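Q: I have 410 residues here and want to know how they pack in 3D. Can you give me a structure?
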Amino acid sequence: MNPQINALQKGVDILVATPGRLLDLMGQGHVRLDRAGHLVLDEADRMLDMGFIPDIERIFSLTPFTRQTLFFSATMAPEIERVTNTFLSNPERIEVARQATTSETIEQGVVFFTASRRDKEASEKRALLRALIDAGGDACTNAIIFCNRKTDVDIVAKSLQKYGYNAAPIHGDLDQSQRMRTLDGFRDGSVRFLIASDVAARGLDIPSVSHVFNYDVPNHAEDYVHRIGRTGRAGRKGKALTLWTKRDEKYFDAIEKLVQKEIPRLGLPEGLSEKIGESSASRGAPERASSGKSSERRGRGDRRRRGDKPEKEQVTEVVETAEASQADVVEAPQAEAPREETRREDNRRDDSRRNEQPRSERNEGGRHDERRDRNRDRHDRNRDRDEKVIGLGDHLPEFIALSFEQRRAG
């Protein structure tokens, strides 16, 4: 803060500040806004959407009522526009182009990607990114690669560095000095690929960016406009490519709805389809067709196999199979009966051996041991009784087996 205070003491005509730092300097008496003639809010939609409204309200209250207020933004959602009406009085709306439109100098495209296996999606997606960079050739002089999460920024940067690409990450968790060094390197060409989160999508003024890669489809459609706006600036040509996966479908539909145009679909780079499979657009249809054909073939094969035998033989075979399975069910318990009987004899022998020991040796609990022994005996009796039951007929009451005349005589 000290260098900033020294610069302010010399007097300034234009002050560029973040809301928090400006309020800190004002609280210490280093800045006064009672003579400010113009107040500009850049990236107004994001500033009003990220919780800065209380700070902005306080700054507005410390400026003269006769000031001129200017809001700048490439996108302005209706709900944010309603908030601006609390700060502006009868404002004029000036549009260079229709709101949320992308520059005509930017060539856009989307690559539909489906991984060969779920656990390989991340690595194959990074391979696709490298293939798209290589496909750009010498035209891809530098590029900004956008990720949704800061962890992915670091992972993608390390992956590109591993394969020999000159890349560096930039996101909010890095020190300010490190971010400035990275941006300076990207401007002077010592850093070719800048892997960034959305913090870099706003406020970066680097005119000569040839490519923008959306490694992740942005969760907010407005961010897409700001991301690809880093290329194709000041009349230059630019190219913006987006990597699409199945989970990004609703976000991508929202982007096309916002920009009011269909983004061209691109195929996978040549030589990459053998490694990671076809794109979802070309892969989905054959899979559905093949599955339908295979099921149809299976149905025909089943009918053909059933048709090899006469209908009577089929019925006979079904009856024989049913009788065989019923015989197996009945014979199985009988085969297991000797084994169960041997197991019960072993259990009784172990119980009698434990009962022969003095009670003091078994446990000092006394009554607790007797209660436990009684419970064990009761459990064994119940188990023996249950194991003897094979079917319903074994415990059929006698009166049910009597004829009607015998029951009436009885």
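Q: Anything worth noting?
A: The chain has a mean pLDDT of 75. The first strand starts at residue 38 and ends at 41.
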